[in-house]
Specification:
alpha/beta; globular; Rossmann fold; binds 1,6-di-O-phosphono-beta-D-fructofuranose; about 45% helix
């Protein structure tokens, strides 16, 4: 593969490890844990993996250095740093014993079920160190949840002599990792399952997990682009830029980008829900700021929109909940099959409550259509396909036209639209993500060597220099509760949404009026790898604010 000069230089970067992982380690165990909700139900569903202690690795004189064969899967959406988790795990198992082997299952969990894999070698790993993307083995969204899949998986794991499987994924994939760990433990198959917290969305975090990997790099990449747009916007002074940002339900990415770039407007879905805002309230809020800036002669600005916004407008949320129920076949718990999209839409319209039908029909046809169509394999509405940025700018233009007629507004409104998501998911990892991911992978090798299963690899204290990071594991059952998914109650990892009483949101809320009125843009520029530590090694503003003592 031909490489750029930057790629060649970057490949030589040796990611930092916590001091505790340099050399032999032993696991120090804390007290027994319990799930974040529905303790009795979760305990009953996970009798073999419930209640295990949080573990932390500390230096030891020696450790178990038997050769081990390990498998790894990349699951779900790409996130910067995935290749470093793999190289960290590879180096970790090889440091235990040179005869250890690492296998990668191809194109996501489906590779395990279909027995498609590759064995990693030094050459293959070296080709991908510190690079973005998941292309070393590919990723996929196959949902690992059926006994037949678990049994098919064990066949290939046994054939390859694999003792442990590492699943790199978000909340849904780690929920599946937990179910698989429990199944293999119950059957006494002797295969450990370890999860690893990945997602650019930043919604897999809790008291034990400081951040999911990829969030840092993705947000810095989007912030660079937003900064560039803001420079353009402030140079030409003639457009309002409506910028939708990935992130699924949670608004962490939009909030982090707002903290980094200080746009005129950033919507936070969780606040829209809390304030019970209607679509018209959201449009009025934006139009008000546009009109106020126009009164100062500023007919330009930037609006950040989290991709999940539409799901948080209470009336639309109720509609989506009912759509999810009717789109699931109660007999199988699977999505209903339809011959074509129009048949699916007609079925939906004929089966939802009149008030929900009224909301559906009040939405622009393209949005209504997308809401009625297929979910992803985990039952999520595919919000990345809904063009909220265009919907909002259209509605704002309509409102401003009315205000103009009423003499309440006398500006010019011209909009540009952007959607940032895929631009950042495969960016080369920042120093933070390169170090964090490598440490997560290396740490997973120690969880395996210490016989752990049903644990997620965790690295904490990451706002301190890497040497001071804390390495260990958290039982996945600790993060679980029961939620309604696809028309049924399911044990799932609780998703972390933006907390309105959390430090990042409070900081934003304290400054947003000033950012709306003034043109206070910040232009973060591209991610840097070499240079002063305050330029190259900073974590996200979200993490810094959350962890500030
Ligand atoms: P994960 O939750 O799997 O990490 O995916 C993140 C994400 O990028 C979301 O922000 C986005 O809504 C979704 O993936 C898009 O999915 P796809 O890659 O299937 O288009």
């Amino acid at each position: 593969m031909e490489k750029s000069a930057l790629q060649i230089a970057r490949a030589a970067y040796q990611p930092k490890l916590p001091a505790a992982l340099k050399g032999a380690v032993k696991a120090q165990e804390g007290a027994a844990t319990q799930s974040v909700g529905n303790q009795e139900e979760i305990k009953a569903l996970f009798p073999n993996t419930y209640g295990m202690p949080v573990v932390e690795f500390v230096s030891a004189d020696s450790e178990n250095n038997e050769a081990i064969n390990v498998g790894i899967i990349l699951s779900g959406g790409q996130a910067p740093g995935g290749h470093n988790v793999i190289s960290g795990l590879y180096d970790g198992v090889k440091s235990l014993n040179r005869n250890s082997k690492l296998y990668g299952f191809l194109m996501g969990p489906g590779g395990l079920v279909d027995h498609k894999y590759v064995e990693f070698t030094d050459e293959l790993i070296d080709e991908y160190r510190n690079t973005g993307g998941f292309d070393i083995i590919g990723s996929g969204r196959t949902k690992l949840e059926k006994e037949s899949q678990f049994e098919s998986g064990i066949a290939i794991l046994r054939e390859l002599g694999i003792k442990a499987l590492v699943i790199i994924g978000g909340d849904d994939s780690n929920t599946n990792a937990c179910v698989l760990a429990e199944y293999y433990a119950a059957k006494k198959y002797g295969v450990q399952v370890i999860g690893c917290p990945k997602t650019i969305d930043g919604d897999l975090k809790n008291e034990q997990i400081e951040t999911s990997f990829g969030f840092d790099t993705a947000c810095k990449t989007y912030s660079e682009l937003i900064g560039n747009i803001q420079r353009d916007c402030n140079s030409a002074r003639k457009y309002w830029h409506f910028i939708k940002l990935m992130g699924r339900s949670a608004s962490h990415i939009a909030l982090e980008c707002a903290l980094e770039t200080q746009p005129n407007i950033c919507l936070i879905s969780e606040e829209v829900e809390k304030k019970e805002m209607s679509l018209d309230d959201v449009v009025t809020y934006i139009a008000r700021i546009v009109a106020d800036r126009a009164a100062d002669g500023n007919n330009f600005g930037t609006v950040l929109i989290p991709e999940g916004l539409i799901e948080f407008i209470p009336a639309i949320k109720k509609l989506i909940q009912q759509l999810n129920e009717v789109l699931t076949d109660p007999a199988t718990g699977e999505s209903r099959e339809f011959g074509c999209a129009d048949e699916q839409i007609a079925f939906v319209k004929g089966n939802i409550a009149p008030e929900n039908l009224a909301i559906l029909e009040s939405l622009p046809a393209d949005v209504a259509r997308q809401l009625c169509l297929d979910r992803d394999p985990h039952g999520n509405v595919q919000v990345s396909l809904i063009e909220t940025e265009k919907l909002l700018s259209r509605m704002v233009a309509g409102k401003l036209a009315v205000w103009k007629q009423e003499g309440k507004y006398n500006g010019k409104f011209s909009a540009q639209h952007h959607f940032f998501g895929y631009e950042g998911r495969c960016a080369a990892p920042s120093n933070y993500d390169a170090d964090y991911c490598y440490s997560l992978g290396y740490n997973a090798s120690r969880l395996i060597a210490n016989g752990k299963t049903g644990y997620m690899s965790v690295i904490k204290n990451t706002t301190a220099p890497a040497a001071e990071w804390i390495a260990g594991g958290v039982p996945i059952t600790m993060m679980m509760n029961i939620e309604r998914r696809n028309g049924a109650n399911k044990p799932v990892i609780r998703k972390a949404l933006v907390e309105l009483d959390g430090a990042p949101f409070k900081f934003f809320a304290a400054h947003r009026e000033e950012w709306a009125k003034q043109t206070a843009y910040v232009y973060p520029g591209p991610i840097q790898y070499w240079g002063p530590t305050e330029v190259c090694d900073q974590c996200t503003k979200t993490l810094a604010l959350e962890q500030a003592k």
